[in-house]
Design a protein that fits this description.
Layout: E1 5-6, H1 9-13, H2 20-27, E2 29-35, E3 44-50, E4 53-61, H3 76-90, E5 98-103, E6 106-112, E7 123-126, E8 135-144, E9 147-154, H4 157-169, E10 179-181, E11 187-189, H5 216-228, H6 234-240, H7 245-261
Parallel strand pairs: 1-4
Antiparallel strand pairs: 2-3, 3-4, 4-6, 5-6, 7-9, 8-9, 10-11
Helix pairs in contact: 5-7
Length: about 280
């Protein structure tokens, strides 16, 4: 038997118009290799192989999900796939290829494994009162013994795009560990199970642009999403297979609100704006 060709994760998702990664994930033979123990829900590290191609991936079966009292409808797996669909519609390719399929433990989300660049710095703590050049302030953080430091994140196009995507999908859990800078500079976001709620749930570390005017590319993307989310449009139809009707309506409303405001959202002040733990 010939040795399967292993596809580097970056090459599989470098172009949002070409989806060999999603096809491989959907049609390939899924083999469980281990479990990621630190995850709060069942997360299985797997390999997937099809027609001589093989890649590493993550499989999150629905049966391994812990119920969430404030997310009574649907499941984490379908919301993760919905986040990927919206990401693909933006053209930014911010979420690794993700599919919903049957696996060894039933229906679940399968997502391409991304090896993060260990040398990339996206978050930092500084004792300065203001962020340095190339950084945006998030807020004060306790660092022990009564001391505080300024939490900052990098001021990059990729992170800013991800902040816009999070506002659209209403991400309630954007932590530092959910940011994967791949070798070559492309940024991915993962763990989108706590998204698409009909109420405002946005909790993120990416508040550095809060209240600032949206960049031109984001305005163009939001206009395209508005068209793609119209009843009967492809994205709306696909999301209707994954989310409730009320959740799809709420996505349309968030996109419309962002277009009207023309600015990045700001914390509501009604609940903690930063997820805990932040990483």
């Amino acid at each position: 038997m010939p040795t399967p060709e292993r596809i580097p994760p970056r090459s599989m998702s470098s172009s949002p118009q070409t989806l060999p990664g999603a096809e491989l994930l959907a049609r390939g033979e899924l083999t469980v290799r281990g479990r990621i123990r630190e995850a709060s829900n069942a997360v299985l590290y797997c390999s997937v192989a099809h027609e001589g191609l093989e890649a590493a991936c993550v499989y999150k079966p629905v049966v391994g999900e812990r119920p969430l009292w404030d997310f009574p409808d649907g499941n984490l797996a379908r919301r993760e796939v919905a986040a990927y669909e919206v990401s693909e519609a933006t053209g930014w390719g911010l979420v690794p290829p993700t599919v919903l399929r049957d696996g060894p433990h039933g229906e679940g989300m399968v997502q391409l494994w991304i090896e993060a660049d260990p040398g990339a710095r996206l978050l930092a703590l500084t004792e300065d009162e203001e962020p340095g050049e190339g950084w945006k302030a998030v807020g004060e953080a306790e660092v022990g013994e009564g001391r505080t430091a300024l939490l900052v994140h990098a001021d990059t196009p990729g992170l800013r795009r991800l902040a816009v995507l999070d506002a659209v999908i209403n991400n309630g859990d954007r932590k530092g560990g959910h940011l994967l800078p791949a070798p070559g500079g492309h940024l991915y976001g993962i763990d989108h199970g706590v998204t698409f709620h009909v109420e405002d749930k946005l909790r993120t570390l990416l508040w550095g642009w809060a209240g600032e005017e949206l960049p031109a590319e984001a305005v163009e993307v939001l206009a395209r999403l508005d068209r793609d989310l119209a009843p009967g449009a492809p994205l709306a139809t696909r999301l209707a297979e994954l989310l409730t009707a009320a959740e799809v309506t709420a996505v349309r409303a968030r996109v419309a609100a962002l277009r009207t405001a023309g600015r990045h959202p700001e914390p509501s002040g009604l609940w903690p704006a930063i997820p805990w733990p932040p990483v």
